[in-house]
């Protein structure tokens, strides 16, 4: 733990942020990309008088990183770099992130802080069930764990049986694992007759890299007998170690000494109030090789209001709710599929699948929500179905501020695409069939 | 470069070794395994008066490591460990190697020294085409490269096309690669029309982890336009960084400040003179978590006599010639298949394959060497064949001190097992058919 930073008062933290933000803006201008922007917009560190002044700066997007590949964001000479990570992304064109030795050290410090926060200590055995190499999750956790003095097993991804053998032989207490591999490991252990609560010493599981629901957390905790800590990061911001849960596990503390956080409406790009869902925008405050200003992460989350009982002033992010790319606009209102999902999943009569269908009738947008009911509902009871339909409509309207048409359908009747649920069908765009 | 260590005079280096050896013997006795041995043999650091006194100590074998798995060789409390590597070996039962933070730092120093010796410098881009995780080759080179200040790309193994893309995009100058992957990459580049000499900036290739011949080195150098540096290490001795070539490339300097080297006859376990082939036996001189005393590596090599023009006093090992497990005894003489191979391959009329057949006739051991001639030989010329046969017999006798029967056979006529040449057939053991 770094009490000098983690337990700073809010005003001291913000003073530190402002100092670092000004330094970052000045430093960023050394890169070809931000240098051109600085000339274009006439912005330098001196014009940043308060943290709010960051809004004078334009956003940086993934596309900017792609266009400037490979060296457009570099602020130091190449001989000062010691590391390069690549993310190939889903669309093909790669983006590169460069690190100086100082960047690697600060990143390891942040990761050590995260692991310390979960309760991991020297004497613990940390098994890193994560791919190494260009993926930042492996080396990121690895360096943090060694920095903290954990006995680190660079186990890598896959090879379930060897993973279980290692956990047993070295009494592993802390793991880092992606959610889908955790679920897979549960199956393998069950097949092998391994009961982690009886046969292993696991206490803590750090899970991230893929979004996962509270339900997955509960399942993993119950099976392995661990506390699961949610981990958030992205390679553009070093990798893991951007935000992490504390033992209160009421959201992820974002390390505000290293990252300046904004939540914006993805349509208007204006800030949204605390508690409201929006796109996470991050500015590096302590990076030397490749600072990024107002980087649009595309990840949807919100700032959770209120203080954390752990005493850390660093604000808390809600778990990632999805990608801003999924947002749609209907009757002038921005809606994320996840908002619909949250309403539906809180209603016990709703089954496991639903679908949003957008259409245009007489030049008016319509939104239909098709909802599978659970197989515990007797579908011949029309009055009961009508009550459920009314309840769903009411609650969606209250959340979304538009009134969708709600259709109840039988369990397992909605189409699936390669086993994956299709959440949104937009018939309004003639090119999008 | 560490001139204080690398350019020490011989007597200063040996004084350093003796001091470290005594410290290592004392420290090792803290482990359960060496503690029991120290009581059994009455040996402690005080009885080590000279480097030769190491011969009072018994050897340590891979089987000892297996039997003591997992913690039998540990000299520190678990909370002082930060890393664990596992080697599963060919026979299944794993062995574990533990590292303190100091061990990791010293290992990174040794690797940085190796890379520096090849000419790599800050400003170079180092692409590590090596598996990460439990395999020590990946993280070993990675830490050394960062320590030296190279721009390190943790590319990992496989994915040839992405490797080539990375080399191109980031003007990679130094690579670490295993020989079989280098040969594979040559094929892929040829298919893609990539000419490394024209399209890439490669200068240096570090190759190790698998034994390879001088012929493979020449092919890789010619194709990639690089200088290939031979790398030697084993996970029991940290991993890579035990011995490495300097620009003279006349053998691998073994870092004698970190490893005490012996070459022994694998049958008698007595030391062999410099220049003679034998089994490499290593003692760690600078390891804290898990010292090893007189570890039998099973690797066959020799000390190359004479001084190196580079000025380093650390002695040079010949490239690894094979495994001592392959040794056989005939008429009381120890012979390695590689000795036979070296004689044969120096004779131009010999083709690419040969086979050693051992038999027992009237209680007398016999050794027959079947040799494919090259397809440039006109096999009907009996007098020519007789001359070749006589030459081979004479040279084998001079090297081995036994006289084998030599049979010349036609090209491609000797049996192969799954495409792999069978070098030794021993009919003397009735259980070994
Ligand atoms: Zn907290
Ligand atoms: Zn030399």
UniProtKB/TrEMBL annotation, chains A, B:
Give the pathway: Aromatic compound metabolism; phenylacetate degradation
| Residue intervals of the AMP-dependent ligase C-terminal domain | 332-428
What EC number(s) are associated with this protein in UniProt?
6.2.1.30
Classification via Pfam families: AMP-binding, AMP-binding_C_2
Q: Which reaction does it catalyse?
A: 2-phenylacetate + ATP + CoA = phenylacetyl-CoA + AMP + diphosphate
Enzyme class, broadest EC rank? ligase
Question: What's the protein name?
Answer: Phenylacetate-coenzyme A ligase
Q: Which UniProt keywords apply?
A: Ligase, Nucleotide-binding, Phosphopantetheine, Phosphoprotein
Organism whose genome encodes this protein = Desulfoglaeba alkanexedens ALDC
- Start and end residues of each AMP-dependent synthetase/ligase domain: 79-282
- What biological processes does GO assign it? phenylacetate catabolic process
Task: Tell me its family.
Answer: Belongs to the phenylacetyl-CoA ligase family.
Task: State the oligomer form and interacting partners.
Answer: Monomer.
Q: Name one GO molecular function term.
A: phenylacetate-CoA ligase activity
Q: What does this protein do?
A: Catalyzes the activation of phenylacetic acid (PA) to phenylacetyl-CoA (PA-CoA).
Q: Which superkingdom?
A: Bacteria
């Amino acid at each position: 733990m770094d009490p000098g930073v983690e337990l700073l008062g809010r005003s001291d933290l913000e003073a530190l942020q402002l100092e670092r933000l000004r330094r970052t803006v000045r430093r960023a201008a050394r890169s070809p990309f931000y240098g051109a922007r600085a000339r274009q917009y006439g912005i330098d560190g001196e014009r940043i008088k308060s943290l709010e002044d960051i809004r004078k700066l334009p956003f940086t997007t993934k596309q900017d990183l792609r266009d400037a590949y490979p060296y457009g964001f570099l602020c130091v000479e190449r001989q000062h770099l010691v590391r390069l990570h690549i993310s190939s992304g889903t669309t093909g064109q790669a983006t590169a992130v460069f690190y100086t030795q100082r960047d690697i050290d600060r990143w390891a410090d942040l990761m050590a802080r995260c692991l310390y926060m979960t309760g991991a200590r020297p004497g613990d055995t940390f098994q890193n069930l994560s791919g190494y190499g260009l993926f930042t999750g492996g080396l990121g956790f690895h360096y943090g764990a060694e920095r903290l003095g954990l006995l680190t097993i660079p186990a890598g991804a896959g090879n379930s049986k060897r993973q279980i053998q290692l956990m047993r032989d070295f009494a592993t207490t802390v793991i880092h694992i992606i959610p889908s591999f955790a679920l897979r490991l549960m199956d393998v252990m069950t097949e092998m007759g391994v009961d982690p609560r009886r046969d292993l010493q696991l206490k803590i599981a750090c899970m991230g890299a893929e979004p996962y629901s509270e339900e997955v957390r509960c399942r993993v905790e119950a099976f392995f007998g661990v506390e699961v800590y949610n981990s958030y990061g992205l390679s553009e911001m070093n990798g893991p170690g951007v935000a992490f849960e504390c033992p209160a596990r009421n959201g992820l503390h974002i390390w505000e000494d290293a990252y300046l956080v904004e939540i914006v409406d993805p349509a208007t790009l204006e800030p949204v109030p605390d508690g409201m869902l929006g796109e996470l925008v991050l500015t590096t405050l302590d990076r030397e090789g490749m600072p990024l200003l107002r980087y649009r992460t595309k990840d949807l989350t919100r700032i959770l209001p209120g203080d954390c009982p752990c005493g850390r002033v660093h604000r808390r992010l809600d778990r990632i709710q999805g990608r801003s790319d999924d947002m749609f606009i209907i009757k002038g209102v921005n809606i994320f599929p996840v908002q619909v999902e949250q309403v539906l999943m809180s209603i016990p009569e709703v089954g496991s699948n639903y679908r949003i269908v957008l259409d245009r009738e007489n030049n008016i947008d319509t939104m239909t929500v098709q909802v599978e009911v659970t197989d515990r509902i007797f579908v011949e009871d029309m009055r009961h179905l009508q009550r459920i339909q009314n309840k769903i409509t009411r609650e969606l309207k209250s959340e979304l501020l538009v009134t969708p048409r709600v259709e109840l359908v039988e369990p397992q009747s909605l189409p699936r695409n390669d086993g994956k649920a299709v959440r949104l069908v937009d018939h309004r765009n003639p090119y999008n069939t």
